[in-house]
Amino acid sequence: MVNFGRVKKLILKIVPLFFIFLIAGCITKRQFVSKPTKSVVNPDSELLEVNAVAYHLNDSVTTTYLEIKNENLIYKRPDTSFAFYADLRISYKLLTEPNSRKILDSSSYHVIDRASEQVELKSLVSRFNLSAKNNANYYLEIQVFDLNKKIKYTKGLNIYKKNGFTEQNFLVTYNDAISFKTHFLKNETVVVRFSNPAITQITVNCFFKEFGPALPPFSTKAIDEFKYKPDSIFKIDLSTNQFQLTMPNYGFLHITPNTTVNDGLTLYTYDKTFPGVSNSDEMISCTRYLMVKAEFDSCKNAIDKKVAIDNFWIGIAGSKERAKELLKRYYGRVKEANKYYTSYTQGWKTDRGMIFIVFGSPTNIYKSTKGETWIYGIETNPNATRFVFNKTQNPFTDNDFILERSQFFREPYYTAVDFWRQGHVFISNGR
């Protein structure tokens, strides 16, 4: 016969032990997870930074080099060892155009990175080959799935193979490594490789023009047309499948292998802090979107520009502590704009850069071969703001988009600017 009194006492002894083991198990499990490093530059975003470079090996094969910055990856310890691991699944599809259902080539693979308890910030680099024939253009859709974080990121890349003279017929290397950037410091030397045997000479066109910030989204002023007129030109005869170039003090170089077309490779000279902001002069310049002309001129002409721009932020924030937060968020957006929207000028000066800096990340983005539509607010709401950016044909870059300006943008733009000037970070989509 069961003694219920003894059972009750036994249960009272076991239950506390159960909760102790449960708590201990939770603590152990929690120690097995290494949190991703928070971005100290842009608290607005924890997006994974993925960069891709395409290089045409021959008429039918294109190699894609993929760089993944590990800053926002999750590292987990899968067992009782001391190692932490990031686990990524990379999948890709080669399409005839964005959103096409016709898949020309596809595959997937894993990238696993091992780290100690302190995760070192670095780039994870991999590559894969595509079956892409000449005389056509394609769209490459890359998906990076962080298996530890359970989040998927998408990267798109246009593949140009209609002729053998586009930038993807060149592979830029720096310090014997693939370069995922096209901007360098003055006097730095890069090595450019190519596989097309028809390239025996290149023309280097040098441009030293400075560009101003984007006009307001409601401006009726005609945008200055950038005409293809280099400031200087020189040629290089090629005897091997690579050549060296030393970057100028400022401006950019446009390398063309065929004098009958403007297609080619473009390399830029930027400051060492790019895509970040380098000095007080640049801080003042990219704060033009929030300043009235008198404030901007006063800061530009100030004897001590650092004091001038600091005073501007303290003035609108109301205190030094609040000003620090505004500085961090605003110039964090400037850095993101430089990363993603740089064309033949810095990203913060472009139309998309201006909208991103002032309004923040859009609620939705719709992309096509002709351009992008950014939506702020609930899409079905008539009060939602829609910005349409049309892609332009540009010999220097395929990342040049022009905003369709309208007087309807005057009120939302000034509302956002006034919000900043009242000491608050404007976040239109509520994220």
**What's the gyration radius in Å?**
26 Å
Q: Residue share in helices?
A: 10-25%
Protein structure class: alpha+beta
Strand-residue fraction?
Answer: 25-35%
Mean pLDDT: 85
Number of strands: 22
Walk me through this protein's architecture.
The chain is of the alpha+beta class. The protein has three domains: 35-162, Immunoglobulins (Immunoglobulin-like, Sandwich); 164-270, S-adenosyl-L-methionine-dependent methyltransferases (Single Sheet); 280-421, no CATH class. Helices cover 23% and strands 32% of the residues. It contains seven helices and 22 strands. The protein has helices spanning 4-31, 280-286, 293-300, 305-317, 320-341, 351-359, 410-421, and strands at 33-34, 50-56, 61-69, 75-76, 84-95, 103-115, 123-131, 136-146, 151-161, 170-174, 177-178, 183-184, 189-194, 201-207, 232-237, 242-246, 251-256, 265-269, 364-367, 371-376, 385-391, 401-403. Strands 12-18-17-14-15 form a five-stranded mixed sheet, with no helix packed on it. Helix 3 (293-300) packs antiparallel against helix 4 and helix 4 (305-317) crosses helix 5. The radius of gyration is 26 Å and the shape is globular. The chain starts with a helix and ends in a 10-residue tail after the last helix. The relative contact order is 0.10. Residues 6-45 have low confidence and may be disordered.
